[in-house]
Amino acid sequence: MTLRLIPALALLLASVAWATVTTLPQTGCPTAALHDNGWDDEMNTCHQTIDGRFLESPGNGPQTSPTTETDEFNDTSVDGKWSWVNQGSATITEQDGYALLSVPSSAGYSWRIRQQTAPGTPFTIIARIVSGFTPANQAWAGLIFLNNSNGKFVSFGTFWDSGVQHVTVSRWTDATTFSAIASNTEARNLMAMEYLRVDVSSTTLTCSVSNDGIGWMPVFIETLSTFLTTSGALDRIGFGGNTSNSAAMTVNVYWFRRT
Q: Residues 179, 150: contact at Cβ < 8 Å?
């Protein structure tokens, strides 16, 4: 009889323990605009809703004092501070709290870029970018740091090659001309690394990734004088997508922030 009761007792105790855990407030969660009671019964993580958008992480919450370069993409039209590089038939719209960049298919390299004027250094760019495309060879999406005087830029973000995802820092002579890969990290175990951060100084780009927008993993430090600023200067920042596998792709940018 005693042996039969042990499993039932263990199950009862586990249920009580689980109920106790899920009723505790979450340390470090924002106090404003919490979803329901502020925590998730299964994952035990904070949630927010801002302007009706469901946010999976406190790191998604908007800036308290947005900078000039910041864009939350939570209105109905794209801000005038953005302009195109190599638009072609690419389009961008704002919907459901994010910017949707639609990149047409191309047989060769052809970045479709949205850019704006860069602030003076030092500064930091943080963005949440999710790509939608066939994981084939080759497709790219991420942040762009551009030298407007000669068209050179450095990209940082997701790169699919032969069906494998990578986190990559790449150098481009212009929107259709590849130069070199500066850093390439296979990301089979980093599928949720959709948060990108670049700390910009007068001499370097320090690139990091995150799965929640809070804790950051350094990926690579690009020295500007190695490629980007051999002449001219870093004077444009932005985001974009590039597909050279004859398949169209989309790039969802949930927000772009300068701190």
A: no
| Cβ-count burial 181-211 (b if 16+ within 10 Å, e if not) | ebeebebeebeebbbbbbbbeeebbbbbbbb
Q: Are 107 and 237 contacting, i.e. CB atoms less than 8 angstroms apart?
A: no
Global model pTM greater than 0.70 = yes
Q: For residues 231 and 149, is the Cβ–Cβ distance under 8 A? A: yes
Rg of the Cα atoms in the chain: 21
Question: C-alpha 24: how far from its chain's center?
Answer: 31
Please tell me the predicted confidence (pLDDT) of residue 188.
Answer: 63
- Domain ranges within the chain, ordered by starting residue: 1-61, 62-258
Burial tier of 105 (Cβ tally within 10 Å: 0-12, 13-18, 19+): middle
Sign of CA dihedral 137, 212, 23, 40: negative
Q: Is the peptide bond before 122 cis (omega within 30 degrees of 0)?
A: yes
Give me the phi and psi of 14, to 5 degrees please. Answer: -65, -40
Q: What pLDDT, on a 0 to 100 scale, did the predictor assign at position 65?
A: 81
CATH domain 62-258 topology = Jelly Rolls (2.60.120)
For 65-94, the pLDDT digits (tens) are 889 999 999 988 899 999 999 999 999 999
The mean pLDDT value for 225-247 works out to: 94
- Across the chain, mean pLDDT equals 80
